[in-house]
Each structure stands twice: as structure tokens, then as C-alpha cells.
Design a protein that fits this description.
Elements lengths: L2 E7 L6 H9 L8 E8 L2 E8 L2 H8 L8 E7 L14 E2 L5 E9 L2 H10 L12 H11 L4 H10 L3 E9 L2 E10 L4 E4 L3 E5 L11 E3 L6 E5 L2 E5 L11 E2 L15 H7 L1 H8 L3 H11 L4 E6 L1 H17 L4 E5 L14 E7 L5 H10 L4 E6 L5 H5 L2 E4 L12 H18 L2 H17 L3 H8 L7 E6 L3 H16 L2 E6 L16 E6 L5 H13 L3 E7 L3 H6 L2 E5 L8 H19 L18
Parallel strand pairs: 15-16, 15-17, 17-18, 18-19, 20-21, 20-22, 22-23, 23-24
Antiparallel strand pairs: 1-4, 1-10, 2-3, 2-4, 5-6, 6-7, 7-8, 8-12, 9-10, 9-11, 11-14, 12-13
Length: 594
Amino acid sequence: MCGIVGCILKNDDDVAPILFDCISKLEYRGYDSIGLATFSGNKLHIKKDKGKIKEVDDKLNLRDMPGNMGIAHVRWATHGNPSKLNSHPHVDEENTVAVVHNGIIENDVEIKEKLMAEGHKFKSETDTEVIPHMIRKFMDEGFDLEHAVRKTIDELDGSYAIAAISTKEPDKIVATRKDSPLIVGIGKEGYYLASDSPAILKYARDIIYPEKGEIVILDKNGVVVHDEFDNPVNKEIDTINWTPEMAEKEGYDHFMIKEINEQAAAVRNTLTQKDNIQEIIDDIGDIQRICFVACGTSYHASLTGKYLIESLAGVPTDVILASEFKYSANTLNDKTLAIFISQSGETADSLKALDVANKTSKTLGIVNVAGSSITRRAKYVIQTQAGPEIGVAATKTYVAQLSAIYLFAALLAEDTQLLEELDKVPGFIDEALENIDFIKEISKRYNYARDFFYLGRGYSYPTALEGALKLKEITYIHGEGYAAGELKHGPLALIDEGIPVVVIIPPGDSYKKTKSNLAEVKSRKANVLAIGACDDETIMDKADDFIAINSEVSEIIAPLVYIVPLQLIAYYITLEKGHNPDQPKNLAKCVTVE
């Protein structure tokens, strides 16, 4: 998974500084290499190399390239190691066509063998390099750039968002997509392409969303979109209500800590969707089963949704990993509501599952990015209001997803008491953030650990899973979340002296049993870090470390609040280890490959 950008300016200014600025905003999508291609003086100018954006820019001065049009790319390697040769943009052997690509070409080996038999020579290990060679082949046969791109994608299996430029048609950028995100921006100074809106917020907030198989042509005069039959398409223009400042650190050291601090606002803003959610529930009608489909952090939010909906509304609810959905697809019917949760709205596994679910069931998407593929494919949509999330490890989008799920469950069950409790959550989150200095200090004591265990019961079990995931993602410490009652069924054998065990223990029905589980691990000399109510002196005495949460936070809303210290623990341990929490190894945001 990678990030791509394209821009053509209306004037003759150099585009490289803008390309560099835009692609830098997509570093969360890939950071093992970067490259730019521009056109000027009848030739392509290309600078690229492996490394973080700043490292490569310091070496190559990426902002110093001639030409008023170009394309750019940040890479998260899928085919071939990070290297200069494997970096994008890729070109044909005569440097007449340059291409950037996000996605995976599944039949690249077959295409490459065919092209090599025709005399084409390749330099990289990537699947992408076949694309500029194919485009050049078709242009040599007399096709213009647009139709050469069309002919090329007819040969490709897999997923892609592609932007191409050519010395033979130096006044345009041609782009297309299939199962990978691509947006088109219309600005005062030029026209833009990008994998995600934060890249171009500074320059364009009027957005077009190309559909699968459509061809987009950018030139100095505007944007033209053609469907697969070459017919012009009049695309609706949406305006993004995010501001450029939302995609900046604004004085914070990292996006992750900024976004942790924005969680109260994310909840508060998402709770404004109450009327929209009520309308959806009224329209859905008779539903006998609910099925959540999600990946990663969104999967944990969905598990919380299962507990809520089954306990409050009594509707049988399942949670299925999107990557495993096909094994359960035959159980869906017209009385099933399939709820797809995705921060980006572009998760490849979720999109494939959504297309299947649409054939039999009513579908609802809960997403954070307006205009994303899930919003255009699901019958119903709940838009979370977290604003752009740049950090790879999800934080504020998680609590925004939870907020939407809580509203849905409360309205479905007509639970007015829960609705009233939800209004207090932003204040509780702000109070939880007051523990930052304490958490920063105790994180130094847990930097030694090679393993962590997280325990929770009921509503707190998915919170334990999410806390462990945050730890794994950015500290590279092995962390496992368990339902506390499962300790005796195996995990207890792993508890030794000094092993950190995080116990999530809010007041409520599960409290007594969770307290017993805490005693079990403590008796085996585990180092217990408990998170509980601020007036819980019993747990304070039993735990080695204790993080206090407002005692008014009930068990049912605890997942929205108790996750905050878990995020902070992961963040500060990461800093102690000297890692960058915004750029964890081997991971990137918005995974659009399977």
C-alpha cells in the first residue's frame, strides 16, 4: 500500500514544491521510499530513492525540479525490497512514460514475460514496472495516452490507482482506479490527484471521486472523466469540510499524541449524528440479525458493538473479520443487517465483503472519510466526525467508531439512560487525559518488558484487545488481550514474576470476578497495572500501579474512556524505546491490499 499524488498547474510555475508538500502529507501510507517525476524541456525529470521523506529530500532536493506538472509517490513495499530501483515513479526503458501506482498487480509475472519476449527490458522487482511498459507499447501502436492507459488496465488483474504522464503528450496527466482509493481535487491554482484528501487540503477542497474503471484526464484547462465506454461523465463535486490545519501536528511532537488529545472532540462531534442514525434505524425495518464486518481496530470496536446490541436490544449479533468473511457469507439473508466499519472506507477486504453482502442483505457503513468507497457502496452510512487521522495507529477514529456504535445500540434499544451517559463521555475523556504525566512516568518502568498481558471482562474485553494491539503496533512488544475468565484455560501458564499484566476493572457487574483474576496473576508475582475507578482503594492496594478514572464512568461506557490510558501507555513506552509512533515498522495506514 502506497500513496500517490499528481498535479498540473494553470500557470507555468514549478510544480515540484507542491508535489513534495502533498506527498509529505501521505507519509502515513508508506515511508520506505519516495519519488517525483515532472516534465520540462521535452523530457521527464525523475528523482527517487529509498528512505524516509526527509532523508531522501536532504540528499536529492526533491523540491528543485522543473516543470508545471508531475506525479509523486511514497512506498510501502509489497513487491521487492525498499531500494532506489524499486522506488516509484517507474518508467519504460526509453523514459517516455512515467507511472505511480498504489495497489497490487496480480498477473505482473505473465505480463512481464510477454513484454520481455517482445524486447522490453526491466530494472526493478516491482509489479508496477509492467504498467509504463504496457502504456508505451500501446502508444507506439498509435493510441493516445488516455487510450493507452485504457488498453493497459484491460490487461491488468488486481487492484490499482494509477497516474501516468508521457513525453508524447506533455500537457496532461491520465489516471484511473480499481479497488484502490483515488480522489481528484479542483483548486484555484491547478488540478490534483491524491490517494487521500489530507494530501491536497491546502490546495483544493472541491473533490471528485472517480469510480472503478473511469479514466480521469487532467490538463491546464480542467478535469475530464470518461467511463469505460469513452462516454464523458458529469461527476458530482463534493466539498471537504476538513481544514488544512487538521492534517498538521499543530505543535505536538507526533500525530498520535495530537490525535489522542482530540478524542473528546471526536466523540462530541460524532454524537451529533444521533438524528441521522435514528432515521437509518426507522428505515431499516425488521432485522433479526446483525453482522459486523471489520479489520484490526475496527474489529475491536465491532466486538464492543456485539456486547451492546445483544445486551440492550436482544438482537443476535456476530462479528466477522473482513478477511474471513467469505466463509460466513452464506449465512446472510434479507433479515440481516451487515455493518461495515472502516476508518478509511477503502479497506480492500471490507470492500470485497460489502459487495457480497449487498446481494442479500441491508448494509450500513460506519466510516470516517466522506466520499470513500464504502460510503458509495453501502445502502446506509454513518459518518464519524473524528477529522483526518494521520497516525498509523488508530486512536480518535476508534472512539468515534465506538460513539457511532453506542448511538446505534442505544437508539435501537430505546435506551434513554445510555444516551444521557454518552453526553458525559467527552468530559470523562478529558479527565482521563489529566493522567498523562503519571502515565509518562510509569511507562519508563515497563520499558523492559518483552511480553504484556491485558485482561478485561464483558465490555472491557474488546478494550483489552485494543490496548494490546496498540502496544504491538508501535512498541514492537508482544502483547495479548484476554477475556479475564479465560486465564485458567491456558494463559495463566505464561504468567511469571515481573510480567506486566494490565487489568481493566471498572465498577459494575464484572468487577468481583475481575478482581479475583487480578489476585490470580498477582499471586504469581506478575507486575499488575490496573485501571479502575478513582475511589477504588481495594484495587489501588492490590495493584503495583493504578491509573484512576472518574468513578462515574459506568461499566457500559468504560470502553470509550478506559482506552485512553492504554493508548498513552503504548505511546510513551514507544518513546522510551526510541521509536517513531507515527511510523511503525512494516505497517502503514489505510491498507488497501489483501
